[in-house]
Design a protein that fits this description.
Chain B: It holds the Pfam family Peripla_BP_6. The complex is a heterotrimer. Helices cover 74% and strands 3% of the residues of chain A. By secondary structure, chain A is mostly helical. Chain C is globular and about 55 Å long. Chain C starts with a helix and ends with a helix. The chains are: A mainly alpha, B alpha/beta, C mainly alpha.
Chain lengths: 286, 392, 312
C-alpha cells in the first residue's frame, strides 16, 4: 500500500510539474499584462503538434524537434501579441475572451491540417526506472526534470537579472517602473512571448508522454489557471507548487476515492485555500 | 433601433431562405448523415462520415443507380452535431423538413437519445441507420419502424460481447478490471458488461474516468492492487494508446481485452504486452491481402481523401457506413421505389448484402455481420479468429 | 434604443405566422432560452461587474430537479419549479456569500464560481441512482396550461415558441425593473468602484449577493423549461462551455445594455444553422467573430448601432 501511495505521490509531482509550466505562463502574463491568457492551452497543443510533425513526419531527432517547436510557438505568440493581445492590456475580461477566441481558431487550423485522429509519437525514451520497488517511466522522470529546471531557471533569471528585476518592479508598481525608464510595452511583449514559448515547451514534452489531439489544451489550461490562483498570482515558485498540489491531490484522491471525481479533488483544495488565504498560498499581497 | 429590428428580421429571413435552397430535380435521392465531426467525441462520427461520402461519390461517379426505368443520383447532407444534443435536434428537424428519407447516424448514445422523440414523430416517413448502443433498446418498440441499428449487439446469443467474454473465459480468466470513460456510452457499456461477466462467473471491478483524462497512472495503480487477469479499457483509440502505454510501462497490467477500439496500441507496445484481445469488425491489414473488395476500398479511400488509410483508427466505422449506403441502394432497387420507406424497410430486412462485410438485419432491425477477434501476443504475433453469425 | 425591445417583441409575436418550419421554430425557441440566460447573466456581469461562471450550474441544477421531480415522483411541472428555484436560490446564496464575504477579486471570483460549478457537475454526473449519470434523463412529459376549456398540453412548436417568448419577456422585465430602481444605481456604483460604493454607504455585500441570487434564480427558471423542451437533461448542461457561450452572447450583443444579450443570443444560436460550413471553418469563424467583436466593437452590436445613430 505504501508503495502505491509513494508511487502516486511521485506521479502527482510529475503531472503537477506540467500544470506548473503552463501555470508559470499564466502567472507571468497575468502579473505583467493584467490578462489571463486562456489560449496558453492552445499554444501547448500547437507545441505538441509541431514537435510531432518535426519528429515523426520530418524525421528530426527529438530534442531539436522540441526546440523547433518552442521557437515556432514563440513566433506565433509574438505575432498574436502584436496583432491581438497588445490591444487588451489591463482589460481582464477582453483579454480572457480574445484568448478564448484564439483557442477556437488554433483548434480549427490544426483540425484542418491534421484531423481529429489522435497522434502518438514514436517513443522517445521507453522503459522505466526501478527504484526500491517503485517503477517510474524514464520519460516522465526526464520531462519532470526539464520542467523543474526551467521553472527554477526562470525564478533565478527573474531575481538575478536586470530584465527580471524590471519585470518584478513593474508587476509591483507599473507607474514607478515606467518612471525608472523601463520600456513597459516591450517588457509585456517579452513576457507574453516567453509564456507562449513555455507552453510550447510544455506541449513538446507532453507529446512524448501522452497521445495528442486538437483538444488536449483546454483541460490543461484550466488546471494551470487553478494552480496559478491557488499559488497566488505573481509567484514563480508558487506556480510550480500550485501545480504539484493539484497533481498530487488528483492522484492521491483517485487512489482512495472514486476516480470519476478526479477533477473535483483539486477544486476542493482550491476553494479551501482561497478561503483561508484569499491571495493564494504563496501570494503575499492581501 | 431600426438596425436591431432589421438584424432580427434578416436573421429570420436568412433562416427561411435556407429551407428553400435545397429544392432540386426529382431524380435525386437525399441522404442525410448526423454525426459529431468535431469535438472530443468525434472519432467515430468523423470516420463514418468519410465512409458514407466515399460510397455516395462512387455511386454518383458511375452515373447513379437505376430503380425501375429511372436513374437516380445521391445527394448527401452531412451535419456536424459536435456531440451536442441540442444542435443535433435542430439539424435532425431540418433533415425531416427537407424530406430526407434516409438518415445515417448517430453513433453517439446521447445524440440518439436526444433525437429519438422527434424521430418517433416522423415514424413511417424515413429510415434511420444508427450505430448508437442506446438504439438497441428502442428497436422493435411501437412507432420505431424507422430504426435500424448498424452494429452488432454486445449481448444476446450471437452478440459479439458474449462471444468475446466466452473467449476470455477460455483463457482461464477469473478477474477483470474495467476502465471506461464516464460518458453516455461508457455507462451503457458498463451496464452491459457487468451482466455479461456476472453470467460468465468472472469477477469484475469498474473504474470510470473523466473524458479528456490523459494520465491514468493513479487509477491503473489502484486497479492493479486487485490483481486482475485482464484490463478491459475503453473505448476509443484517443485513450487506448495512453492506457496501454502507461499500464505496461509502469507494470500495472500487460493483458488487455477490448470491445471497441483498434489493435494499434497493441502493435505500438508489442514487446510490452502479454495478450491483447480485441473485437475488430475486420482486420484490414490481413483482409487487404486476401479480399479484392477491401483492397479496392482502401485504394479508393487514399485517392479520394489524399491521406494515409487509417488502419488503426476505426476503419470499421468508415467502411461500415460505406457498406450501408451500397446496401440501401440495393434495397431500393429490389423494392422498386426510392420513396416508399416501408417497402424499402421490408427489402432491407429480408436481404443479405455482400460487400466489405456480409451484412443482414435480424427481424427487429439490428444488424448482424461477421467480425474478427484479434489476439495479439507479445512480440506482435497476430492471431485472427473469425466469427460469422450471418450464417445462423 | 428606447423602442427596440417593444418592436422586437412585436415582430417576435407575429413571426410564426410567416414561418412554417419546425426547425426554424426550434432555433427560435432555443434562441429565446439562450437570450433569457444571457439577459439574466448580464445582470450579474454587465451591470454588477461580477464575472460569474456559476450560471450554467444554476441552469442545470434546476433542470435536473424539475425533471427528477416530474419523472420519478410524478409531480406537476409547475409545482416542481418551486423547489427547483428554491434550491438554486440557496446554492447561489451559499456560493455568493462565500465569494463576496471574502471579497474575491474579479478573476478569483470567476475561478471560484467555476470550481463550485464543476463540483456540482461532477456530483450530478456520478450520482447514478438519482440522476442516471452520464446517460441523463429523458423527459416524455410536457407541461400543461390551464385554460377555461381544461388543461392543454404544451407540445407543439408554436406553443413552445410563445411559452419561451413569455419566459424571455419575464426575465427581461424583472431585470429591467431591478435596474431602473434604486438597486440598479447601487449596482452601477459597485461595478465602477466597489470601494467607493462602500464609502458612499452602499452595503456592497448585500447588493452583490442580491444581483447574483436574482440572476442565478432566473437562470434556474430557464433551466426548468429547457429540459422539458429538449426532452432530456444531461450533465453537459452544467459544463463550462455553456458558461463561456453565454459570455460570448452578451459581449456580441452589447455588455452594457438589456437588449444586447438578446440580439447576441439569437445570432449565436442561429449562426451555425444559417451558415453551412465545414466543421473546421465553423469553429475558426466562431473564434474570429469573438476576437473581432472584442477588439473592434467592444460595445457589441448595440454599441455599434448606437454610435451610428449618433453620427447620423
Amino acid at each position: 500500500m505504501s508503495q502505491l501511495i509513494i508511487g502516486q505521490l511521485l506521479n502527482g509531482v510529475i503531472v503537477g510539474s506540467l500544470y506548473g509550466i503552463i501555470a508559470l505562463g499564466v502567472t507571468l502574463t497575468f502579473g505583467l499584462t493584467g490578462i489571463v491568457n486562456f489560449a496558453l492551452g492552445a499554444f501547448m497543443m500547437l507545441g505538441a503538434y509541431a514537435t510531432w510533425y518535426l519528429y515523426d513526419v520530418l524525421g528530426w531527432p527529438y530534442v531539436p524537434a522540441v526546440f523547433g517547436a518552442v521557437i515556432a510557438v514563440g513566433i506565433i505568440g509574438y505575432l498574436c501579441d502584436r496583432a491581438l493581445f497588445q490591444f487588451t492590456r489591463g482589460n481582464l475580461v477582453n483579454g480572457l475572451l480574445v484568448s478564448i477566441g484564439m483557442i477556437s481558431v488554433f483548434e480549427a487550423l490544426v483540425l484542418a491540417a491534421f484531423t481529429t485522429t489522435p497522434r502518438d509519437l514514436t517513443y522517445v525514451l521507453p522503459g522505466a526506472l526501478h527504484v526500491g520497488g517503485l517503477i517510474l517511466p524514464k520519460i516522465k522522470v526526464a520531462v519532470c526534470g526539464v520542467f523543474l529546471a526551467v521553472i527554477f531557471g526562470t525564478y533565478f533569471a527573474l531575481t538575478r537579472t536586470w530584465l527580471g528585476r524590471a519585470a518584478f518592479s513593474y508587476a509591483q508598481n507599473p507607474e514607478a517602473a515606467a518612471l525608472m525608464g523601463i520600456r513597459t510595452g516591450r517588457l509585456q511583449t517579452i513576457v507574453v512571448v516567453y509564456s507562449t514559448a513555455l507552453a510550447g515547451l510544455g506541449g513538446g514534452l507532453y507529446a512524448s508522454m501522452y497521445s495528442i489531439d486538437p483538444t488536449i489544451g483546454s483541460g490543461y489550461v484550466l488546471k494551470a489557471v487553478e494552480a496559478a490562483i491557488l499559488a497566488g498570482i505573481g509567484s514563480v515558485i508558487g506556480a510550480l507548487g500550485g501545480g504539484i498540489i493539484l497533481g498530487v491531490s488528483e492522484n492521491i484522491g483517485s487512489v482512495f476515492l472514486p476516480s470519476a471525481f478526479r477533477d473535483a479533488y483539486g477544486l476542493v483544495f482550491l476553494i479551501a485555500i482561497l478561503l483561508v488565504r484569499p491571495s493564494g498560498l504563496f501570494g503575499d499581497r492581501s | 433601433m431600426l438596425g436591431s429590428k432589421g438584424l432580427l428580421l434578416s436573421g429570420f429571413m436568412a433562416l427561411g431562405l435556407l429551407g428553400a435552397t435545397n429544392v432540386r430535380a426529382e431524380d435525386v435521392v437525399k441522404i442525410g448523415q448526423i454525426e459529431a465531426l468535431t469535438g472530443p467525441t468525434a472519432t467515430y462520427g468523423w470516420m463514418s462520415a468519410q465512409g458514407a461520402k466515399l460510397a455516395v461519390e462512387e455511386i454518383n461517379a458511375k452515373g447513379g443507380f437505376k430503380v425501375g426505368d429511372k436513374t437516380y443520383k445521391l445527394q448527401l447532407t452531412q451535419a456536424d452535431t459536435r456531440g451536442e444534443p441540442r444542435e443535433a435536434t435542430v439539424q435532425f428537424r431540418k433533415l425531416m423538413e427537407e424530406n430526407v428519407r434516409f438518415v445515417f447516424g448517430p453513433f453517439l448514445t446521447n445524440i440518439f437519445n436526444a433525437i429519438e422523440p422527434i424521430a418517433k414523430q416522423n415514424n413511417g416517413k424515413f429510415l434511420l441507420f444508427a450505430g448508437a448502443t442506446s438504439a438497441h433498446s428502442a428497436l422493435g418498440k411501437p412507432d420505431h419502424d424507422y430504426l435500424f441499428r448498424t452494429w452488432n449487439w454486445d449481448a444476446g446469443p450471437s452478440g459479439f460481447g458474449k462471444l468475446m467474454v466466452d473467449y476470455l473465459k477460455k483463457q482461464d480468466t477469473k478477474k477483470v478490471a474495467m476502465l471506461f470513460q464516464n460518458d453516455a456510452f461508457g455507462k451503457t457499456a458498463v451496464d452491459i458488461y457487468t451482466a455479461l461477466f456476472k453470467d460468465a462467473g468472472i469477477e469484475l471491478k469498474v473504474e470510470l474516468f473523466e473524458p479528456g483524462t490523459k494520465d491514468f497512472s493513479a487509477v491503473l495503480a489502484k486497479l492493479a492492487t486487485g490483481k486482475p487477469d485482464f484490463l478491459f479499457p475503453g473505448y476509443s483509440d484517443a485513450v487506448l494508446y495512453d492506457i496501454v502505454r502507461q499500464a505496461t510501462e509502469s507494470g500495472f497490467a500487460n493483458r488487455f481485452f477490448l470491445v471497441r477500439g483498434s489493435i494499434g496500441p497493441a502493435l505500438k507496445n508489442k514487446d510490452a504486452i502479454e495478450d491483447y484481445i480485441a473485437y475488430v469488425p475486420k482486420y484490414f491489414e490481413q483482409a487487404e491481402k486476401t479480399e479484392p473488395k477491401v483492397k479496392a476500398f482502401i485504394e479508393n479511400y487514399k485517392k479520394t481523401y489524399n491521406r494515409e488509410f487509417p488502419y488503426d483508427q476505426a476503419p470499421l466505422c468508415s467502411s461500415s457506413c460505406y457498406d450501408h449506403v451500397h446496401m440501401l441502394v440495393q434495397a431500393m432497387q429490389s423494392a422498386g421505389t426510392v420513396d416508399d420507406v416501408a417497402k424499402i424497410r421490408t427489402a432491407l430486412l429480408s436481404m443479405s448484402y455482400d460487400g466489405l462485410w456480409k451484412i443482414k438485419y435480424d427481424k427487429t432491425g439490428e444488424e448482424v455481420f461477421g467480425f474478427d477477434v484479434v489476439h495479439v501476443r507479445k512480440g506482435g504475433s497476430v492471431e485472427v479468429v473469425k466469427y460469422d453469425p450471418t450464417n445462423d | 434604443m428606447k423602442y427596440a425591445a417593444p418592436t422586437a417583441l412585436l415582430i417576435a409575436l407575429f413571426a410564426p405566422l410567416a414561418v412554417h418550419s419546425d426547425s426554424i421554430l426550434a432555433i427560435a425557441i432555443y434562441g429565446f432560452m439562450a437570450a433569457s440566460l444571457a439577459v439574466s447573466f448580464n445582470l450579474i456581469f454587465g451591470f454588477t461587474g461580477q464575472l460569474s461562471l456559476f450560471h450554467a450550474a444554476s441552469f442545470g441544477v434546476s433542470a435536473y430537479i424539475v425533471t427528477i421531480l416530474v419523472t420519478a415522483f410524478g409531480w406537476n411541472f409547475w409545482l416542481a419549479v418551486v423547489p427547483a428555484l428554491a434550491v438554486v436560490l440557496i446554492l447561489s446564496l451559499i456560493v455568493g456569500t462565500i465569494c463576496f464575504r471574502f471579497k474575491l477579486k474579479e478573476f478569483y471570483f470567476a475561478v471560484v464560481t467555476m470550481a463550485f460549478s464543476e463540483i456540482l457537475r461532477l456530483v450530478i454526473l456520478n450520482w447514478n441512482g438519482i440522476t442516471n449519470g452520464s446517460l441523463g434523463i429523458t423527459v416524455v412529459d410536457r407541461p400543461s396550461l390551464w385554460t377555461p376549456s381544461g388543461a392543454v398540453q404544451i407540445s407543439s412548436g408554436i406553443a413552445w415558441y410563445y411559452l419561451t417568448l413569455a419566459l424571455l419577456v419575464i426575465v427581461y422585465v424583472v431585470c429591467q425593473r431591478i435596474l431602473s430602481s434604486w438597486i440598479g444605481r447601487c449596482l452601477a456604483a459597485i461595478r465602477l468602484n466597489d470601494q467607493l460604493g462602500e464609502t458612499l454607504g452602499i452595503d456592497v455585500f448585500k447588493y452583490k449577493l442580491l444581483s447574483f441570487a436574482v440572476g442565478s434564480v432566473l437562470a434556474g427558471l430557464v433551466g426548468a423549461f429547457y429540459g422539458f423542451y429538449s426532452g432530456f437533461v444531461e450533465p453537459h448542461y452544467l459544463s463550462i462551455s455553456l458558461g463561456l457561450d453565454i459570455i460570448a452572447m452578451v459581449l456580441l450583443g452589447g455588455v452594457g445594455s438589456l437588449i444586447g444579450p438578446v440580439i447576441g443570443a439569437v445570432i449565436l444560436t442561429a449562426l451555425p444553422h444559417v451558415i453551412d460550413l465545414s466543421a473546421e471553418l465553423r469553429i475558426g469563424l466562431y473564434g474570429s467573430i469573438l476576437i473581432f467583436v472584442i477588439l473592434v466593437m467592444p460595445k457589441g452590436i448595440v454599441g455599434l448601432l448606437g454610435s451610428r445613430k449618433n453620427a447620423a
